[in-house]
Write a structure and sequence with these properties.
The complex is a heterodimer of chains A (158) and B (119). With 158 residues, chain A is mostly helical. Helices cover 79% and strands 0% of the residues of chain A. Chain A is rod-shaped. The termini of chain A are far apart. Classes of the chains: A mainly alpha (158), B mainly alpha (119).
């Protein structure tokens, strides 16, 4: 009776020791997994930070693009207003002027037409010539569309 | 005593079943192919010549045309219609410029990486 009791106790102790050993091994394995998880989480956090930075850069780009487009719409509108002024400034009547000074109005019309043609080429993506880029005086610019044809021209009077 | 030992044994056995699971982070980023179409070739337009005809110079203008071997026929516009034509062209030009710049902005935004790669 006492012998079998001792056997059982020894058995339980051996099983307990083996269980404890297995438990320690498992803890070590869990620890390794946790470390790996930690590394993955840190990497995920870094990626998220990069993502947020990129998003902020994108927002800035979108804002810049919107501002530039608004600026362009405004300067083109100004060109259109200038064209209107050219026809109607101080109650100007182009028809009467053409009767009085036919040749000079014909010359002006043809020059304006050539300028307007060049404006359409530029608007369609044609690169600016050096002459157009460097034009700063009123006599040098394309008066039909200075905002797109002459980037260095600053209007100095009306 | 037995109960305590058996309880500890069962406890160890059960806690041994639970464990820390390995974290899985799923990443599936498949980028769309870039469109990257070439921009249309800029226009190259022909210059045209305007002739102003008034009641005073009409005969002279037609005579000059005939002398130059050009058919003595002209398509006419009144001064008001000429003004409208000029403004219409200016509007078309503005729209063309806006559309073209818009296209540039889109390309710059969506395909800037690709442009860098191509460079």
């Amino acid at each position: 009776m006492f012998g079998s009791m001792r056997m059982i106790m020894i058995g339980v102790m051996v099983a307990g020791l083996a269980g404890a050993g297995a438990y320690v091994m498992k803890l070590r394995s869990d620890n390794a997994t946790l470390k790996a998880n930690q590394i993955k989480l840190e990497s995920a956090v870094t990626e998220q930070k990069e993502l947020i930075e990129n998003q902020q850069k994108d927002f800035k780009k979108i804002l810049d693009a919107n501002n530039k487009m608004n600026e362009l719409v405004n300067v083109l509108k100004k060109d259109l207003d200038e064209l209107d002024k050219r026809f109607n400034k101080k109650n100007r009547d182009v028809g009467k002027l053409a009767i009085q000074r036919t040749e000079s109005i014909e010359r002006i019309t043809n020059k304006g037409s050539a300028n307007a043609t060049r404006c359409i080429e530029i608007a369609s993506g044609s690169p600016l010539t050096e002459e157009e880029k460097n034009a700063t005086r009123k006599s040098e610019i394309n008066s039909e569309c200075p905002s797109i044809a002459n980037p260095n021209y600053v209007p100095y009077n009306n | 005593m037995y109960h305590i030992i058996i309880s500890i044994f069962i406890f160890l056995l059960l806690t041994g079943c639970s464990g820390v699971k390995e974290l899985q982070i799923f990443k599936q980023e498949v980028e769309r192919e870039k469109l990257n179409l070439n921009k249309p070739t800029p226009l190259e337009l022909e210059n045209l010549k305007w002739i102003i005809i008034t009641s005073n110079n009409a005969e002279e203008v037609f005579k000059k045309l005939e002398e130059s071997g050009i058919d003595p026929v002209l398509w006419g516009l009144t001064d008001k219609d000429f003004e409208l034509l000029a403004k219409n062209f200016a509007r078309i030009r503005n729209q063309l410029k806006i559309t073209n710049d818009l296209l540039d902005k889109y390309k710059e935004y969506y395909e800037s990486d690709l442009n860098k790669e191509n460079e």
